[in-house]
DNA sequence: ATGTCC
């Protein structure tokens, strides 16, 4: 492909460390410049097509300040994964490409008061128990048989519905971004097909890079914030990384069709068909938005149900009560979602549609949407590693509002296709290698392990260092996997 | 990511 011969260094202009501009002349009709937040070394790994995607988004109507991408940026559908863009609520647009297919893919972290040495001797049994209790894999079905009414509950009330249904406690909801649900969801815009796919999957992990992982804290970078987050060295934590399954995928697919028509109807010029969108206040855009919120809420309900089964699994293995094991929710973040938020733009506060696609909200200390428990330090920002690699806990930092619409990165980007990974690695040997490093893995098939081998992802530590140095999120702690369940 | 192509 011709793109591979283009020099990335000729496409960007360095503004300061970790901060690069994609000038308005990169492609015709850019309304604002692009911004790419990467280190010198990460820059060389960015595909030219990713730069083009950041520039393409800059041509969309009503875009504010600049079209940006986080240090884990890579090619996505229309918008780059790692992309953040905010649009005016009147002059701007809403685009499914700016959210992605896995609506509200996200991460939550459960604390325990168990120590690494308490868990290591039981890790195989615990990982087996988690793998048994939380269905994983493509097309996997839930242990929970949702009725239509219960599905509506998940679509409209997210984690709150799940807690009311007996999956968790009230405090869980308070420790989710947006209290585990977004207002304005309307199931009238969710197709029968999306319901049909979503109904049996409510309470499933999914596949790909999604996982359920038992970890321990091995390093604290910021004692004060770690203390506010209830984290200390040697402590065991559980991380859940999953999304809205077939429901979100179908909702995205359905509305992409409608919005492709809307592009013509409203005469919007887009440089890439994958940037299908409609004017923010149009019927088409609002219908997508209301359906997207249903999928976002479904994902929060999904992670909440998985949390409940995680707690039950620990109870069974350790023979202790969840409260006794201190299994409270630290936080739950969305990294694929569009939201109405207030931001300061050119010196005045205004409401915008912020699209985060493979980017985590990272609101700083003092922001009213940060839960009271963390208000003095900033919201927890959870950055999952890939299978067998460290994950990071950060907190939203003071410059995020000015620099990145209150956003940070979301994880390690893939550097090798699934097909390539399956040729390069063998599941069984990857598994043996991980077990030699003290990491137990349970997956539906060895090919899943090959596709997700540690070597197919960029290092998340390099990505995390960029957002830390930029002052948009600060490093708090690092966690190391002990046991992983995957689909 | 995804009933990994209706």
UniProtKB/TrEMBL annotation:
Transmembrane segments: none annotated. It is an enzyme of class 6 (ligase). Keywords: GTP-binding, Ligase, Manganese, Metal-binding, Nucleotide-binding. One of its GO terms (molecular function) is RNA ligase (ATP) activity. Mn(2+) 1 binds at residues 102, 210. The active site is at residue 410. This is tRNA-splicing ligase RtcB. It comes from Methanosarcina siciliae T4/M.
